[in-house]
Amino acid sequence: MNGIPLLSIILLAPLVGALVIMALREDLHIRVVAAVASAVSLVASLYVYANYDNARGGMQFTETVPWIDQLGVAYSLGVDGISLPLVLLTAIVIFAGVFASWTGIRERVKEFHVALLVLVTGVFGVFMARDLFFFLVFYEIAVIPMYILIAVWGSTRKLYGAMKLTIYLLVGSAFLIVGVIAVFLASGTGSFDIATLASVQYDEGFQKFAYLLFLFGFGVLAALWPFHTWSPDGHVAAPTAVSMLHAGVLMKLGAYGLLRVGLWVTPEGAQAWAPLVATLAVIGSVYGAMVAMAQRDMKFVIGYSSVSHMGFVLFGLAGINALSLNGAVTQMFAHGVMTALFFALVGLIYDKAHTRHMPDLGGLARQMPKVAAAFVIAGLASLGLPGLINFVAEFLIFVGSYQVYPVRAVLAVSSIVVTAAYVLRVAKWVFFGPPVEKWAGLTDARGVEMVPIVLLVGTLVVFGFFPSLMTGLIDTGIVSLLEHIGPIQLGGSF
Amino acid sequence: MVIDLNLLLPEIFTGLLGVGLLVLFFLWRGEGVVRAIGYLAAVGLAVAAVLAYGTVALDTSTLQGTWLADPLAGYFKVVFLLSGVMVALLSLSYLERLGESLAEFFILLVFLTLSMMVVISAGDLITLYLALEFQVITFAIMIGYRRREGAATEAALKYILLNAFSSAILLFGLSLLFGLSGTVDISGIAAAVSAGSPQPALYLAVIFVLAGLAFKVSLVPFHMWTPDVYQGAPTPITGFLAAGSKAAGFALLIRLFLTIFAPVSTVWTTVFVVLSVLTIILGNFVAVPQTNMKRLLAYASVGSAGYMIMGLIAADVTGVEGVLFYAFMNVLAILGAFGVAVVFANATGRDDIEAYAGLSKRSPLLALVMLLSTLSIAGIPGLAGFVAKFVIFWAIIDKGLVALALLGVVMSIVAVFYFLRIAKVMYVFEPKEETPIRVAPAARIVLVASMVLTLVLGIYPAPPLDLAREVALAVLR
Question: A472: number of CA atoms within 13 Å, CB side?
Answer without folding.
Answer: 12
